[in-house]
């Protein structure tokens, strides 16, 4: 089985201009994902977990290292140096990202958000509408909210919508940045069901979770990040946050 993603010696730091200081977020990070795997990452808050995912999605530009991705459209490319236009195409068609936060256009309804994500993949409007309804119903988002603006939603409703928008595209690579952080138990189970479904369909996933029970039986391999560096967990039973 080939690697879909291979990270080699990734490093990212941030400049605090007011203090004229450079802060290292992650350094010398190396990991790989084979096609169809679910790989989990844990670590303390502020340890650099989200930074790694944002470098892959290219929200952040790495300072050094390589992020090799085997794209259906472009072949093997380095996400650390790929042109912006290529990154935009990959976000539309191959790479999804789910965070704890929902960032949307102010006057876009919940229904439109999910619908537009499907149309962006090249599907027709009729198919997009049917899939939108299925996804919103799966996450039990109240029908009265479907044509409302997400700015009025609770934190949990926004998160469910964010997950629905990303998962409905069935991306080849899905990055999950603590997607169950503010969800109740029932909503977490809905997310888990969809993750299991996507795994069966061949989606490769890299996920950050603080809920280790949620990760149980989902992950093929696990990494822990400490002081900006990655360590492979030997066994799940020993894989804990300290």
From TrEMBL:
Pfam families: ABC_tran
EC number(s) on file: 2.7.8.37
Keyword terms: ATP-binding, Nucleotide-binding, Transferase
Ranges where the ABC transporter domain occurs: 5-241
Alphabetized SMART domains for the sequence: AAA
Residue ranges crossing the lipid bilayer per the database entry: none
Family matches, as InterPro entries: AAA+_ATPase (IPR003593), ABC_transporter-like_ATP-bd (IPR003439), ABC_transpr_LolD-like (IPR015854), P-loop_NTPase (IPR027417)
Name of the protein this chain belongs to: Alpha-D-ribose 1-methylphosphonate 5-triphosphate synthase subunit PhnL
Species whose genome carries this gene: Paenibacillus aceris
């Amino acid at each position: 089985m080939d690697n879909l993603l291979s990270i080699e010696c990734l490093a990212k730091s941030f400049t605090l201009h007011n203090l004229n200081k450079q802060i290292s977020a992650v350094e010398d990070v190396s990991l790989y994902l084979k096609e169809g795997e679910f790989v989990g990452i844990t670590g303390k808050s502020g340890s650099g977990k989200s930074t790694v995912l944002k470098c892959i999605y290219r929200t952040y530009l790495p300072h050094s290292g390589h992020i090799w991705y085997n794209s259906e459209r472009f072949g093997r490319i380095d996400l650390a140096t790929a042109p912006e236009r290529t990154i935009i195409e990959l976000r539309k068609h191959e790479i999804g990202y789910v965070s704890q936060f929902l960032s949307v256009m102010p006057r876009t309804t919940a229904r439109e958000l999910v619908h537009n994500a499907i149309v962006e993949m090249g599907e027709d409007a009729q198919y997009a509408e049917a899939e939108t309804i299925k996804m919103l119903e799966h996450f039990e988002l109240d029908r009265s909210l479907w044509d409302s603006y997400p700015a009025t939603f609770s934190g949990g409703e926004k998160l469910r919508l964010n997950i629905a928008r990303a998962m409905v595209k069935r991306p080849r690579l899905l990055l999950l940045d603590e997607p169950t952080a503010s969800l109740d138990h029932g909503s977490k189970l809905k997310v888990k069901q969809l993750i299991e479904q996507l795994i069966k369909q061949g989606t490769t996933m890299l996920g950050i979770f603080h809920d280790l029970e949620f990760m149980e039986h989902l992950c093929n391999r696990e990494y822990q990040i400490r002081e900006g560096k990655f360590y492979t967990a030997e066994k799940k039973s020993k894989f804990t946050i300290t």
